Amino acid sequence: MERLRDLQIDKERIQTSSFAVSPQYRPPPHRPADVPPASPEIVGYVVSNMVTVEIRILDRVGTVIEEVLKAGANSFQGLHWGLRDEQSVRLSALKQAAAKAREKAAVLSEALQVKLARVLSIHESGHMIRPAAAMARMAMESGAGDVPISPGELKIEATVTLVYEVAPK
C-alpha cells in the first residue's frame, strides 16, 4: 500500500477487495490404527490481503505492477480494462445497431414486397470485448525487466432485434 502511495496513486483508486485469515495445521503424525487421532494443532496462520488498484494512466500500468511486486506482493491476479464513461459508448452502439436493424428490415420488406406496419417487439443486448490480460508475475519471474503491458483496444458491441408486423403493399 505504501508503494502504491509512493507511486502517487490516489487513495480513492486503491481498494481492499478481500481479506482472509486461515489457520495452518501441523500435519498429523503417523499413528497405529488402534490409537485415536490427536486433535489438530494450529501452528500458524495464512493471511491474504487482495487489493484492487485503478490506474488511469495506461503508460504506468507496467511500472505499478513491477513496483508492487518488488515491494513484496507475492501474487498477481490479472488486469481488467474498462472505460470511464462506458454508458455513453454503450448507448451509441445501441443507437447504431437499431439503425442498422431498421435499415435491414426496410430492405427485406422491399425485397418481399410487403410494408412494415409496426414494431411488435424490440430486443437488445450488448457486451464489451476485452483483450487478454498479460500475467505480470510470469514476466517478472522470467527476468524480463519492465512488465510488458499492452492495453489493446476495447470493443463495445450491441445487437438489436426488431420484430415487425408486415402488411401487403
General shape: elongated
Q: What Rg is obtained from the alpha carbons, in whole angstroms?
A: 28 Å
Strand order of the largest sheet: 1-2
Instruction: List the quaternary state of the chains.
Output: single chain
Estimate the helix proportion, in percent: 25-40%
Number-wise, the strands total: 4
Listing every helix as H and every strand as E from the N terminus to the C terminus, the arrangement reads HEEHHEHE
Kindly name the structural category: alpha+beta
Question: How would you describe the overall organization of this protein?
Answer:
With 169 residues, this protein is an alpha+beta fold. It is 28% helix and 32% strand. It has a two-stranded antiparallel ribbon with strand order 1-2. Strands 3-4 form a two-stranded antiparallel sheet. The longest helix has 26 residues. The chain is elongated, with a radius of gyration of 28 Å.
Question: Layout of SSEs?
Answer:
Elements: H1 2-6, E1 14-25, E2 42-53, H2 61-70, H3 86-111, E3 114-129, H4 136-141, E4 155-168
Antiparallel strand pairs: 1-2, 3-4
Quick summary:
The chain has 169 residues and is an alpha+beta fold.
List keywords for this structure.
28% helix, two-stranded antiparallel sheet, 169 residues
